[in-house]
Write a structure and sequence with these properties.
By secondary structure, this protein is mainly α. The chain contains four helices and no strands. The N and C termini lie far apart (about 40 Å).
Length: about 110
């Protein structure tokens, strides 16, 4: 899981607002990346995913920096909780598959 730099997210919202871009995800992001060529493809992809998942909360909090960073932190927690749940499901599935394979092996 790539952790997005919250300062870059805030700057993305500022850039979108400053340029009166019609939307953040496409036009605003393109303008932001043009202004910040140091942003890697990996990070810009992670920013898109994060704003896609948590954009409503971030937009509601913006431009208040404290609220924005709080919304960012809450989004991180949600993402981490989801990742942990997904990992648990995958672990359970792997254990079940191993048990089934063992049962089939002992039946032969």
């Amino acid at each position: 899981m790539y952790v997005v730099n919250p300062n870059h997210l805030y700057a993305l919202y500022q850039c979108t607002e400053k340029n009166d871009a019609p939307d953040l995800a496409t036009v605003g992001m393109a303008m932001f990346l043009q202004e910040h060529p140091e942003i890697s493809k990996e990070e810009s992809g992670a920013m898109r995913l994060f704003t896609g998942a948590h954009g409503k909360a971030l937009a509601k909090a913006y431009p208040d920096e404290k609220r924005f960073y709080l919304a960012y932190a809450m989004g991180l927690v949600e993402d981490m909780e989801h990742a942990i749940q997904q990992e648990e499901v995958e672990q359970e599935e792997a254990e079940k598959a191993a048990e089934e394979a063992q049962d089939q092996g002992s039946q032969q």
